[in-house]
Amino acid sequence: MIDTQPTEATALRILAAxxxxxxxxxxxxxxxxxxxxxxxxxxxxxxxxxETKEALFDAITSQWIKSIEAxxxxxxxxxxxxxxxxxxMIFALLRAYRDRLDDEPRLFELFVEAFEGSRPPARxxxxxxxxxxxxxxxxxxxxxxxxxxxxxKALTFVLDALYRFLNPSTLYxxxxxxxxxxxxxxxxxxxAVLDHIGRRx
Length: 201
What we know:
Order of helices and strands: HHHHHHHHHHH
Largest sheet: none
């Protein structure tokens, strides 16, 4: 039976089919025709919900990162001291990315493509992370855990210093590095970062 109704259920069915296609065959081999076949509809109906294949891929990426952002939001909202929250957030982000890379390498490749192409979901994800870290920095400065000064400079310093560990592209190309090794190195860098932004002039 061909589904021709532009419903949310149909869009979700298409999305589920596209995710399975990526899992099964990899990003480069996914076609809209194959997605439509798996979803039991015409490719024209797929295009009614997602105007391009890139729009379909963006929808996969957006869905994929929702749980990561929800977890980071929980950390930012927690009553912990700001220094502890920032450390937890940094490690939570690395572990979430690495979990996805280990468990769903082909979907993680799609995630990397979104970042390297500066696709809308990737830009929004980066903005969300910046916003949450900035909230913690503001809280830390207000409470005396972090040195007073420009939050924008502090935020830039944190993100630049941790780029190696929190960028999906670098993690993807370094997939063979043992998780334990990455976390030990991240721990050393994070301690240095927290000490630096906690200094008093």
